[in-house]
C-alpha cells in the first residue's frame, strides 16, 4: 500500500513495483464486470423467456380466433336448439335441443372466460376464420362453416310440427360438421391444454350428435 | 464510506500529492466512479509499462472500454426488454372501461347520470326514456336479436334496450343516410355477436352508437371510433354477463312499437 503511495508520487518506481500490486485490481474489476454482465444477461434472458413462454395467447392467435368464432358459431346453434326444444314434435328432438342449447351456451361462457383471462376483448379485430390453419374462410354471406343463413333460421322459427324436426335436423347436422371442422383446426394450431381439451370434447360430442340426428332423420323418413 | 475503502489506501496518497480530493468529495457512489476511473488507467498503464515507460499516452488509452461497452449494451438491452414487457403488460391489462374512456366524445352515463339507467325492470308497452336513443332504463321482456343483425327498418327502443342490457352495441343512423354509408356501418356490425343496427327517426346526429350506459354521436360513417366503440363495448358493457343475444325478436314487423310475445321464444 505504502509502495503504491510512493509509486504514484514517483512514476518510475511505480513501473517496477506497481504491476504485482495493481494488477490484482483490474483482474478483480474484470471478474466483477463479467459476473455483473452474466447476472444482467440472466435477468434479460429470464424476462424474455417469461414474456415469450408464459404469455397468454395474443390478439391474432388461433386460440383467440377459435374462442371468438366458436362463440358465435355456438350462439346460432343455441338459437336453433331452443326452437327444437320449444317447438319440436318428436320428444327426442326436444330432448336433444335442450341438451345442445345448454351445453353450447355453457361452452360459450367458458370460451369467453379464456378471453378475459388472456386480457382480450370478446370481439376480434381480424376477419372471422383467419386463424384456421388450412385456410378455410367464411362464405360469401360472411358465414362460418356450417352456419345457417338468416332465412333458414326464420324458416325454422316459423315451421310447425314435423317440419320443425326436419329443418332442425338438416340445419344442425350441417352446423355440427362445420363445428367439428373448426375444432380440428384449432387442435392443429394450438397446444394450450384448456383449448385442446375443449376442442376435443366438442369434436367428440358433436360427432356423436351428428350420428344421433342421422338416426332420427332416417327414422322419420 | 465503506465503498471507498478498497481503493482508499492506494488513493489517499494520490489525494495528498495531487489535491484531487474536492472531486472525490461528492456523494459516495459518485466518488467511487470518479476515483475508479483515474486509478485504473494508471494501473493498466503500469501493467504494460515496464517495457516501455512512456506513461502519459497510455493513461488515456487504459480505460476498460470492453467492460464499459458490455455494460452499456447489456444495460440498454435489459432496459428495452423490461420496458417493453412493462408496456405490454400495462397495455394488455387495461380494462375495457379504460379503453372506453379513451374514445373521444364518448358519454359515460354510468358516471354522469347513473340514476337515469339504474332501473332494469321489465315492462310492457311504450316507455319514455331520458336519452335518445335510450342507453338504460326499464325495457320490454323480449330483447331484439343481436347476433350481428342489420335491421333495415326502425325497431322498438324497448326491445333494443333489452339487448343493450345483455351487452349488445346498437348502432343507429338517420334514415336519410346515403346507402353507401349505411353499408359501411353494416360492415362493422354484420356477423358480429352482441351487435345490431337499425335506422332511427329523429336522431340529433347522423349516427349514434350506444351500449348500456354509453353513447357516442358521430357525423361520419368512416369514423374509426364506430368500430372502436363496438369492439370495446360489445359484451363488456353487459349488466347481465353471460346472457345470450340469440333468439328474441328478430323482425322489424311492429316498427317502433314493442311487441309482446306469447312464449319468450322469438318470432
TrEMBL record, chain B:
Compositional bias of kind Low complexity: 19-34
Origin superkingdom: Bacteria
Pfam families on file: DUF3105
Membrane-spanning ranges: 68-90
Comp. bias regions, Basic and acidic residues: 257-267
UniProt keywords, alphabetically: Membrane, Transmembrane, Transmembrane helix
Bias-annotated ranges (Polar residues): 246-255
Annotated segments matching region Disordered: 1-60, 243-267
Full protein name: DUF3105 domain-containing protein
Natural source organism: Micromonospora sonchi
Record lineage: Bacteria, Bacillati, Actinomycetota, Actinomycetes, Micromonosporales
